[in-house]
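I have been asked to look over a protein record a colleague put together. Alongside the sequence sits a line of tokens, each denoting a local backbone shape. I have pasted the whole thing underneath without changing anything:
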Amino acid sequence: MSQNQQTITLFFSTPVQFKLLQLHVMALSANKAKDAARWADKLGVDLSSTWNDESWFNHSFSVGNGHLSIIVDTSTREGLPLAPLAELFEAGVIIGAAVDVFYDQVGEHAAYFFLSNRYTTKDAFLEAIPEAASAVEDYEASDSSYDKFLDKPIPKMMAGLKAQQADAEAAVVVMREMAREFMLTKKSPETILRHMLVRAAFVRGLFHGVVFTMLTILLFKGFWFWLLLGIAVTVALPIFYVHQITSEDSSDDDADESADGQDEEALAQAK
């Protein structure tokens, strides 16, 4: 079974924070829950839930000159350890972190750098923490798909990645639905997609109408007025959204027909 390996190298705000996290990780590694909790209280951060999560396994750690590296194996679906990094940054425990990931399925490494709770480049990272050079000199460039998150706070990066995952899962659901409907109806994929877009537009309009009705009733005086207006909006919005979809389809069809006519005219003139 394929699995990735993450090496999480942490750089600290103070020597005291360095020592406290080292003791916390040592206790976690030795399965000494009480000691781990005691050091976590002093540190202000508890990594036990992340450490003991089933997504992390084969834990180990090493200590260097002013830095601590946590090495874990993960599934190939596991993302970067953004949540624990954000927690360490927000508690003032670390000033920087570098994550080297070995992607087993492709046999390649990629590195990701974080500074003051933001995703950053290797150059910016080393400029801020020059003493980290020896620890991360072999770390290769990160995946370019993360470039959109450069200089953004880790929490925003987490939200963006979560939205990307939701979009990808939604796309998979749409493809499965299209395949199922194609098998049942034998309609063309284009026709099926149009029907699905119309249904989605109807549901979106209905949802927006209900939300509008609830908010206006709660926020403004005049219950019956806003209720009746909300019902009207709830009826009108689905029709409006569906009309937008169908009118766009009609425009596309007209444009295609116009282009076909121009092509035929050009061919006739050429003859």
Remarks:
- DSSP finds nine helices and six strands in the chain.
- The two ends are 63 Å apart (CA to CA).
